[in-house]
Amino acid sequence: MELIVFTNNGQTYYFNNVEDFKPTTTGFSFSYVGKATGVKRSATFNNTSTSGYALAPTK
Fold first, then answer.
1. How far apart are CA 28 and CA 39, in angstroms?
2. Is there a contact between 20 and 3 (Cβ–Cβ < 8 Å)?
3. DSSP states of 1-59 as a string?
4. Distance between CA 19 and CA 37 in Å, rounded?
5. What is the pLDDT of residue 51?
6. Of the candidates 10, 15, 19, 29, which lies 20 to 30 Å from 40 by C-alpha distance?
């Protein structure tokens, strides 16, 4: 899947190869593979720092 995260301070983050996306009571978490490094990583975002997100299946 592809994930775009919009922050409250106007930044936008793009993630490819997203797996294990999980909404939580305080935000959301997921795993992804770094585009430049090819390394699998985990990330967590808090609802207080994000204004929204878009999640779409990879074509």
1. 20
2. no
3. -EEEEEETTS-EEEE-S-EEEEE-SSEEEEEEE-TTT--EEEEEEETTTEEEEEEE---
4. 17
5. 94
6. 10
Answer yes or no: are the C-beta atoms of 33 and 39 closer than 8 Å: yes
The Cα-based distances of 26 to 34, 40, 56 in angstroms read 24, 23, 22
Side chain identity at residue 27, one-letter code? G
What pLDDT, in 10s, does the model give residues 23-44?
999 999 999 998 889 899 999 9
d(CA 44, CA 5): 11
pTM: 0.86
Measured CA to CA, the distance from residue 44 to residue 39 in angstroms comes to 16
